[in-house]
Amino acid sequence: MKTIPDLRKHADAIFYAGIAAADPYLAVKQCLQFDGKQLVCLLDLENEALVRKKDWQKIHLVAFGKAACAMVRAAQEIIPAQLLGKAIAVCNYENVQEVEQVEVIGAGHPLPDQAGLVAAQRIIDLVLQAQAGELVLVLVSGGGSALIPAPVAAINLADKIATTDLLLASGATINEINCVRKHLSRIKGGGLAKMAAPADMHTLILSDVLGDELSTIASGPTVADSSCFADAHKVIQDKGLWDRIPLAVQKYLQQGCLGGVSETTKPNDPVFRQGTQMLIGSNGISLLAMTQAAKHLHYMTLVYGEQLAGEARQVAEEWVLYAKKMMDKGLDKPYAILAGGETTVTIKGTGLGGRNQEMALAFAIAANKYQLQAEWVFLSGGTDGRDGPTDAAGGLVDTQTLTRMHKAQIEAEPYLANNDAYHALQISKDLLITGATGTNVADLQILLIQPNTKISQSGDQHV
């Protein structure tokens, strides 16, 4: 029989297996090689014959995102020194590492800052100097949208920060937020690809976006954008933010809708004939690794959701109801019910936390409300090691979480209502603390259930 300490230990191990599968250094190493004469860029993980190679005279490295340092270090180790041109890596402050011969810049995330503005301009300067016959190798990972702000001339950084802050608090999805970001930026929405011409460009992408839509990851600086100003305008309107965003942003979006300013770079732009992209890591790959790890620990495995989305506390309650239905049918084996995705939180309180902490706290409350009749633990964590503006990656709750809160003379519900999951979980000792992981492929969730029976052989199924 697996005890609560066993289940918590196993949930940790399964979560870290998901993080390991998104290792940015190994992912880049898998997709690039030097054959003695040329850099060979793999274009399909399942077809090693599908590659891109050319006698580039110089190869410039541009990396941005939470995994930028690890990715640029891997590329630098593969490319001969005589071919390397300039190299810049921009990442969040927690993941800054010194990389030889690379200009590493720390910048703000999730809200952009002045350091990111300077970093974005350094990238623009490098890319604009690239020549025909050269390659700009771009290494993209989660967080890139905030880390390299390059607002259009009509708005300033403060305007962009205010708009981003409002969107983050509104419950907008990452796709919706990035749609707006693209239309307020010089480099997002394919802008960086346009600047690189006439040089060639190849992009390796570590996805933090559900569905792995390349134009959404880091707001797609090197990928064609099919959205338009009207879409960005609609996001702002639908979230009830129009009267709250800065006036300069209002005016610019209105001009865009009327055709008064240039749109983002579209799929038919000839610049994309010189560019290729490849997805090298994703939430789905990490979810598969978690499934394998759970089987190894002798759990029956079930994938609850491959693109989990929605309001965090509502998703948690729906998951509890699903688990209760399974338990009511009778379970005679330990189960690992797994998911990956990215929920949202509409902030109404004044507390501290993030979507993963809120989901974990809401799960513990709902599990008590619906009386789950088994030993269980539930983990919800961000693969980057940071959930919201906190030092926690998320939460790891169990059957005794609310009991620990009662003993500390607090009630969970008021903390959840105040969006203060961090302090509730801190008191119950249920915060998930990993530190910066150096990667980001959105969030992972794990529910482990131990019925009162002997452990049996592992298997798997999907819903």
Notes on the structure:
The chain has 463 residues and is of the alpha/beta class. The chain folds into two domains: 180 residues, MOFRL domain (glycerate kinase, domain 1, 3-Layer(aba) Sandwich); 189 residues, 3-Layer(aba) Sandwich (Rossmann fold). It has 16 helices and 16 strands. The strands form three sheets. Strands 14-13-12-15-11-10-16 form a seven-stranded mixed sheet, with helices on both faces. A six-stranded parallel sheet has the order 6-5-4-7-8-9, with helices on both faces. A hairpin with a 4-residue loop joins β1 and β2. α1 crosses α11 and α2 runs parallel beside α3. The longest helix has 18 residues. It is globular and about 65 Å long. The C terminus is likely disordered.
In brief:
With 463 residues, the protein is of the alpha/beta class.
Low-confidence stretches: 454-463
Strand order across the largest sheet: 14-13-12-15-11-10-16
Mean pLDDT level: 93
* Count of separate DSSP helical elements: 16
In the CATH hierarchy, what is the superfamily of the largest domain?
Answer: Glycerate kinase, MOFRL-like N-terminal domain
The main pleated sheet reads as: 7 strands, mixed
Global morphology: globular
Structural class: alpha/beta
CATH structural architecture of the largest domain? 3-Layer(aba) Sandwich
Under CATH at level 1, the class of the largest domain stands as: Alpha Beta
Distance between the termini: 26 Å
| Radius of gyration from the alpha-carbon trace, in angstroms | 23 Å
Percent helix: 25-40%
Work out the count of structural domains: 2
Number of strands: 16
Portion in beta strands: 15-25%
